[in-house]
């Protein structure tokens, strides 16, 4: 019974956040089957990410800056970006800017959920620590997904040099934010929580602005309004 409770505590935050961002799609919600498929891809990349990260630690050591910005955030965000670009970017269901956010959040939360499960069973985790992980690392991964997906959506509907620019931003912006978060955890004093909480509030503020901006430029928003007027 305890195992089931711990497992639920580790899994629920990821699915709750995925549902939240999925329902934020105002005009043309994505097929849930494809969203869950992207979530599972996020789960599947955990093992190769762990292998690459372990290899880089043995090669480069664990300098806080190198670990934060290259080994941790660099590797994790690259794998997420790689999956999104090669699997969903050219998919016919990716037909509005907000879709980039939905799919990027799905991949990020698939990764974060399995990571949370492994933490719960391999570390002496309590419900308190799992709650804190839901507020910080898990929601952090969701918001890094928002940052990535926002630029991915802009790349999808840009032309010319704007496409490459936003594809690069989709990779680099979450790496920087994720890296700064990890660097903060590794180098700040034990009272780091007083810094982490405002950091997460700022990240949520930026993320929700991106959510609203992506919805505001949906090509389906006018169609939706016309349907509401007819009704």
UniProtKB/TrEMBL annotation:
Q: What is its main location?
A: membrane
One GO cellular component term noted in the UniProt record for this chain: plasma membrane
Keyword set for this entry? Cell membrane, Hydrolase, Membrane, Protease, Transmembrane, Transmembrane helix
Protein name, as recorded: Protease PrsW
Q: Where does this polypeptide localize?
A: Cell membrane
* Leader sequence residues: none
Q: Which domain of life is it from?
A: Bacteria
Task: Show the stretches that span the lipid bilayer.
Answer: 6-23, 35-53, 65-88, 100-122, 134-153, 165-186, 192-211
**Record EC number:** 3.4.-.-
Q: Please name the GO terms that the record assigns under molecular function.
A: peptidase activity
- Which species is this UniProt entry from? Cohnella phaseoli
Write out the function statement from the record. Involved in the degradation of specific anti-sigma factors.
Tell me which Gene Ontology terms the entry assigns under biological process: proteolysis
The membrane topology term of the UniProt record is:
Multi-pass membrane protein
NCBIfam families documented for this protein: intramemb_PrsW (NF033739)
Q: What family is this protein classified in?
A: Belongs to the protease PrsW family.
């Amino acid at each position: 019974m305890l195992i089931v409770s711990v497992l639920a505590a580790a899994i629920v935050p990821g699915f709750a956040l995925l549902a939240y961002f999925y329902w934020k799609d105002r005009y043309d919600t994505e097929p849930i089957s494809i969203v869950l498929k992207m979530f599972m891809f996020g789960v599947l990349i955990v093992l190769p990410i762990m292998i690459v990260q372990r290899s880089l630690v043995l090669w480069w050591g664990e300098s806080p800056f190198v670990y934060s910005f290259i080994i941790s955030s660099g590797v994790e965000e690259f794998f997420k970006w790689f999956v999104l670009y090669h699997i969903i970017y050219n998919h016919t269901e990716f037909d509005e800017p907000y879709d980039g956010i939905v799919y990027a959040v799905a991949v990020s939360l698939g990764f974060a959920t399995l990571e949370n499960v492994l933490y719960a069973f391999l570390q002496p985790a309590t419900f308190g620590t799992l709650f804190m992980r839901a507020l910080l690392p898990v929601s952090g991964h969701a918001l890094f997904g928002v940052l990535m997906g926002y630029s991915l959506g802009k790349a999808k509907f840009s032309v010319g040099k704007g496409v490459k620019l936003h594809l690069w931003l989709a990779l680099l912006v979450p790496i920087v934010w994720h890296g700064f978060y990890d660097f903060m955890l590794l180098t700040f004093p034990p009272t780091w929580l007083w810094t982490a909480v405002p950091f997460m509030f700022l990240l949520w503020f930026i993320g929700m602005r991106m959510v609203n901006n992506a919805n505001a430029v949906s090509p389906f928003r006018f169609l939706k309004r016309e349907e509401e007027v007819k009704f």
